Amino acid sequence: MTLIQSETPRRYFLLLVLWVLFVQSSYAQDRITLGVTTRNGTTAFPFVIAEEKGFFKSEGLNVIIVVMQNQVVVNGVVARNVDYGGTFSNFVGAALSGLPVRIVMSAMDGSDHYLVTAPSVKRVEDLKGKTFGISSFGGTPHSEAVTILRKYGMNPEKDVTFLQIGGSASRYTALEGGSIQAAMLVPPFNNFATKRGFNQLMSFNDIMNIPLGGLTTHTQKIKERPDEIVKMIKAVLKASDYIRNRKADILSFLEAKWGIKEADVRESIYRDMVGLYSRDGVAPDETMKNVIQLVRDTRKSKDDKTLADIVDWSFAKRAQAELKIR
């Protein structure tokens, strides 16, 4: 064998290695991170379905869903280490504070949070002197809890102790373990709790109508990747439509992925959440004003920000047009 002949396979091998490295590098560069607080909850459900059922991929997007604490999601988007946030009121607070973020999609037209308490707590007033578990200070569960307590004549700063715990799964575990006596829980955790003798006192929708969940991103991404934002919204809207119209598949998903074996619990979860998902990705001004005021009241903040400083619905409207949503 000549030297030229022996070198030929080596050259092909080196070219193959370089090609693989190039593809891997390109793939990593195109990866999009979406921060959520849990995969097994109604707020993140459209994102998970968009990932699991290939709606992100159908839009040419390589989306990775990352679970992290609420405030970490905000910090990640602000620092541009996370491309999109899937939480809501913390980003309202961030925008009110002047941070460079905008909510570009509302995923839910109402709250999926329920006030769940220990068996001994049968009324909101019974929470005096008790510990209330929240995700983070300024997050949606905290803001909702403050609003409920005030409505029932209580002083949130003096009558309860707020304990920052994390996502709904962590709050449920803390409630079950007895380290807290109340929490705002989302399906399936409120369903689990009531099955085990805990009290579900109310839905936050009984108190106030607010949008919940959605997509938020950095203002720089709005300038740099507008088409990507539209594709993200289209994928989530497709997922929401799938949830509404594929009940049998969703019930099977809840059993396989969420581990919910009881058929009645799966039916209850589906019934509670299916009507909440937005059909067009845009929250009405009235409900946005509700959540903005809720965040302001919770944080005791004063600012001169307008709705345009917090949301940009232009991408959702483009997604509507491309999907022919009326």
Quickly name the level 1 CATH class of the largest domain. Alpha Beta
Q: What is the spatial order of strands in the main beta sheet?
A: 2-1-3-10-4
**Shape from CA axes?**
globular
What is the fourth-level CATH superfamily of the largest domain?
Answer: Periplasmic binding protein-like II
Number of strands: 10
Mean pLDDT: 89
Distance between the termini: 71 Å
Number of domains: 2
The largest sheet, given as strand count, sense and whether it forms a barrel, is: 5 strands, mixed
Oligomeric category: single chain
Structure class: alpha/beta
Low-confidence spans: 1-29
Strand content: 15-25%
Helix/strand layout:
Elements lengths: L2 H27 L1 E6 L8 H8 L2 H4 L3 E6 L2 H9 L5 E2 L3 H8 L4 E8 L5 E4 L13 E4 L5 H12 L9 E4 L3 H10 L4 E4 L3 H7 L3 E5 L8 E7 H6 L1 H20 L1 H11 L5 H12 L10 H15 L14 H10 L3
Parallel strand pairs: 1-2, 1-3, 6-7, 6-8
Antiparallel strand pairs: 3-10, 4-10, 5-8, 5-9
Helix pairs in contact: 2-10, 5-13, 6-13, 10-14, 11-12
Report on the structure:
This protein is of the alpha/beta class. It folds into two domains: 199 residues, 3-Layer(aba) Sandwich (D-Maltodextrin-Binding Protein, domain 2); 93 residues, Periplasmic binding protein-like II (D-Maltodextrin-Binding Protein, domain 2, 3-Layer(aba) Sandwich), CATH 3.40.190.10. Helices cover 49% and strands 15% of the residues. Strands 2-1-3-10-4 form a five-stranded mixed sheet, sandwiched between helices. Helix 6 links the parallel strand 6 and strand 7. The protein is globular, with a radius of gyration of 22 Å.
